[in-house]
From TrEMBL:
HAMAP family: CcmE. Keywords: Cell membrane, Cytochrome c-type biogenesis, Heme, Iron, Membrane, Metal-binding, Signal-anchor, Transmembrane, Transmembrane helix. This is Cytochrome c-type biogenesis protein CcmE. Residues 1-7 are cytoplasmic. It comes from Bradyrhizobium jicamae. It holds the Pfam family CcmE.
């Protein structure tokens, strides 16, 4: 074997080992990667039973039902579609109807999303106490932090200008 042939064989072998390693890593990650979907995306993609994914949307008002042994059912909607969710466990403190939620699990054969993890999303006005205290201390605190934006009030009538 010439020097050039040995070098090409060594490079080819290294590329083959690298390709096999990459294929093994991607195959292992395929089972642990969890994609995010909304109820309308679930309907469009026709996700089959047993496939794990994250479901996100708003908890429909009036859909929360509590059962025995920490079992709860509720409906997650995104405006155009809704999906029933069943969960057994303690719900997060921020969980409530009309609030954003992300649930991780899979669909069962009857089309119900069986969640094993439920995360409640807070609104954008949330601010941790430590951050609020730091802003107050630095003088950057605004009185409208933590309040939801409302329609602007009409300006108060002004009195005649003094000359």
């Amino acid at each position: 074997m010439t020097r050039k042939q040995r070098r090409l064989t060594l490079i080819g072998g290294a590329l083959m080992v690298l390709g096999i390693a990459a294929a093994l890593v991607l195959n292992a990650l395929r089972d642990s990667i969890v994609f995010f979907s909304t109820p309308s995306m679930v309907a469009e993609k026709h996700i089959g039973p047993g496939r794990r994914f994250r479901l996100g949307g708003l908890v429909e008002t009036g859909s929360l039902k509590r059962g025995d042994n920490l079992a709860v059912t509720f409906t997650v909607a995104d405006g155009s579609a809704a999906l029933p969710v069943a969960y057994k466990g303690i719900l997060p403190d921020l969980f409530r109807e009309g609030q954003g939620v992300v649930a991780e699990g899979s669909l069962d054969a009857s089309g119900v999303f069986r969640a094993d993890t439920v995360l409640a999303k807070h609104d954008e006005t949330y601010m941790p106490k430590d951050v609020a205290d730091a802003l107050k201390k630095q003088g950057h605190w605004k009185d409208d932090y933590g309040t939801k934006p409302t329609a602007q009030a009409a300006p108060a009538p002004t009195q005649g200008a003094v000359r």
